[in-house]
Amino acid sequence: MATNNPTEVVSVGQLPPPQAGKVTHFSIELIFEDALTEARSKGGNAKAAVKTFLECKTETGEWEKTYTGLSKSFIHTGLQPNKTYSYRLKVESSSVKSDWSAVSTIKTQAAPYNGDDLHQAVRRGNIEKVKEILDSGDVNADAQDEKDFSALVVAGLQGKFEIMDILLQHGADVNRKDASGKTPLIHAASRDLLETAKWLCKNGADVKTYDKSGMAAIHHAIDGGYVKLVEWMLDNAGAYGFDIEQIETTSGMTPLNRCANMTPDAKAYELAASLQLRGANMSAKAHNNYTPLLNAIIRRKIKLVEFFLARGADIYERNESGQTPYEVAQGVGNAQILRAFEEKIQQLNLLPKSKRKTTPNQELEVS
């Protein structure tokens, strides 16, 4: 109740508790304008300076001072997400004071999702959680992990096609490159993931794009010796654009030339046969003028050398140093490779002259 005695302090009992303003996962805005307005009204001075004392209950149940001042609001920060906090207030001025208010209980919001949450859900195959995270709008569908793998790459490596569908629906980039320039298709090709490669191609993967090493998906599949994957790529060249003669940019090798150079020996013969059957050029030269036959010789891939010789590879074509394949084989010194050449040369010399290849390299003839 108002009084005419300027020295008398009016006790107004309990005032309205603090009200919640903006609440985030780490902060709560507390507004005490109603309490201040009532305190001034009961004190008889609408413009009086009134100090607010705000307390928050600790986890041990004790009240702890949170704010003291003349403002009409305060933002309590540094809070934990998805946690309930209790507040009370009292006010005091030269003419009015109050008891502690009733308690306001306010809960912070749950923390927004982040890329780690999405990747964990993808790895666990938790389809509903993936949907929940993407539907929240907190996380981009292309969020990357510590390896710079996008969620689509991670799902593809594990063959989780339903999750891949969901990621695509939420805007995942099927051609996103990571720090090494690798796309999801290149990652799939380098790991022999045929079904993942099929899904990516059906959903718009660029099959010819290069990574920072200058290799496309087909070159990675060749290097791994993944015969079925390479065969599928080439058998579907018309639909997706794979190129049996695509040149990787570092060494200038076609798939067949790279097969002779890089494919593990256990798979090189089978893969070369698949490539040759599908029309690969056996005379294609890399930047160093090496043909697939020359690369097979220097890599000592005996079965592959025999294969190229049997399929009519040019044994007279010289490299950048002017050497023929036979001369290169002599320098390598592998007995089986030399024997294969000598048998081939003998076979050629047994042909009628009219059917022999015209060449100035008569030194290749053996008696």
UniProtKB/TrEMBL annotation:
Ordered alphabetically, the record's keywords are: ANK repeat
Q: Which GO terms describe its biological process?
A: regulation of apoptotic process
Any one annotated GO CC term: nucleus
The record, for Pfam families, names: Ank_2, Ank_5
Q: Which CDD domains match?
A: FN3
Fibronectin type-III domain location is 16-111
In the record for this protein, the ANK repeats are positioned at: 147-179, 180-212, 288-320
Q: Which domain of life is it from?
A: Eukaryota
The name under which this protein is listed is Fibronectin type-III domain-containing protein
Biological source species = Lymnaea stagnalis (Great pond snail)
